[in-house]
Amino acid sequence: MTAFDTTPHEFGKPLPQKASDEVLEALFNRRSAPAPTLQQPGPSPEQMDLLIRLGLRVPDHGKIGPWRIVRFTPEAKTQVVEKLKALAESRGDKKDVGALIKMSTPPDMLMVVSAPIQPHKIPLWEQQLSAAAVCQNLLIAAGAMGYGANWITDWYAYDAEARTILGVKEDENVAGFIYLGTPTEPPLERERPDYDARVSWWG
Ligand SMILES: Cc1cc2nc3c(=O)[nH]c(=O)nc-3n(C[C@H](O)[C@H](O)[C@H](O)COP(=O)(O)O)c2cc1C
After folding, report:
1. Pocket of ligand 1 (CB under 6 A)
2. Structural domain of residue 106, as residue ranges?
3. pLDDT digits (tens, 9 = 90+) for 176-195
4. Domain harbouring 65, CATH code
5. Based on the structure, what is the number of domains in the chain?
6. pLDDT by residue (tens digit) across 142-151?
7. Which end of the chain has the lower number of beta carbons within 10 A, N or C?
């Protein structure tokens, strides 16, 4: 499936590190694909397994793994969409119902949950940053596999009842839903924050 050996590394094994213009080019051109444009096919089961393993290889101060990933079978995904839709409809919130197109259209999705260990000597903020790194790794790895991906939170990441439907615990936060599939159109460059306004020399 891949041109490299994906056998899990043993602890302490020296890891090959090589310069790669391909990785740089991928990052240079990286762009999310809007979730409603993501169609079949999504990643195969083997690709999804590798994608998740790559997603979890992130910097993590203290090696505490303060995150978890939730997978959804197609049936579970449909069920969750229906439950969230019923919730939004019960409140008469058309905007929230409409927003669910982002979850219902893509063939696949992962939920990345920030699950900090508290109290802990590693600051909460650092644990949450590590969960964000999981999301970003997933985006990059999905792109390298040829899929489109979109990192979304939306209302259901924050709504108490929606969080219960999703199985998010009180002390957890949804770092993001990563919607996955094949984009129907090439992404267009978006406006980027100005380099000079964001980068400065100290002093
Ligand atoms: C934590 C987080 C949450 C986001 N939630 C949403 C969202 O709910 N709805 C949305 O349209 N975009 C959301 N976005 C933005 C999308 O991911 C957006 O497509 C992306 O920033 C485009 O940038 P890119 O092309 O550089 O990847 C979110 C981004 C982040 C980092």
Report:
1. 31-32, 150-154, 176, 190
2. 35-184
3. 999 999 999 999 999 999 99
4. 3.40.109.10
5. 1
6. 999 999 999 9
7. C
